[in-house]
Design a protein that fits this description.
It is a single chain. With about 210 residues, this protein is α/β, with parallel strands linked by helices. It has two domains: about 100 residues, no CATH class; about 100 residues, no CATH class. The longest helix has 11 residues.
């Protein structure tokens, strides 16, 4: 477990590592993996979970910041072990984020877990249906690069919006109308606007609240 520079969590943990098979062209995690010549094969780092259980001071932990642990290629038992760790660690808040939310239907998450869907604004919004009947849900539009989004906030408890980082940040900017539309659809629900988005649109009302910190 590591302290995090990600604005909406305090720590990150990556018990599953390797080359993510989504192969998103803007993936920061893949750039880091290649830069440090880390193995491409899927690997299990169990000591990450041991460290989490030993820590008594509460933390907000983004699980899988460098890998989609709910990817369709990941053995089903691996996420279950992580969720079992969350059940034994009620002092912490666990955040999960995936581009494959259909996998969420397999598992029973304790109340200290938040499940999120990662969408760059170009995906089929039918994926949101996998939040139906679930509590503690959020969506992360980061980087927001799509031009058409139909936000169904009835299924989502919190929203994160961010811009592109890295080498492409000057070439791909979020559409301001899309940002405003998401914020409007969220209404009174918590919205976290990342600092890189606020830097692009300084006139945006600063909203940096998540459902797990409200």
């Amino acid at each position: 477990m590591q302290k995090s520079n990600i604005e909406w969590c305090t720590h990150t943990s990556n018990p599953i590592r390797g080359k993510c098979q989504h192969e998103c062209p803007y993936c920061y995690a893949e750039r880091i993996r290649v830069r440090f010549d880390q193995p491409a094969a899927l690997s299990w780092i169990g000591k990450e979970l041991v460290e989490i259980e030993k820590r008594k001071k509460s933390a907000t932990i983004f699980m899988g910041s460098m890998y989609d642990i709910f990817g369709s290629w990941v053995p089903i038992e691996m996420p279950q072990i992580i969720i079992d760790t969350a059940k034994r660690s009620p002092q912490h808040t666990f955040l999960f984020l995936t581009k494959n939310p259909v996998r969420y239907g397999i598992y029973d998450f304790p109340n200290n877990c938040w499940i999120g869907y990662s969408d760059d604004g170009t995906k089929d919004m039918r994926h949101w249906v996998h939040f139906k009947g679930r509590k503690n849900t959020f969506i992360s539009f980061e980087p927001l690069i799509g031009r058409s989004i139909n936000v169904n906030m009835a299924l989502v408890g919190s929203v994160i919006i961010g811009a592109m980082t890295g080498s492409g940040k000057n070439n791909i900017r979020p559409d301001r109308d899309i940002v405003d539309g998401i914020i409007s659809a969220a209404g009174s629900k918590p919205v976290y606007l990342k600092n890189n988005l606020l830097a692009l649109f300084p006139d945006l009302q600063k909203r940096q609240e998540t459902a797990w910190t409200r």
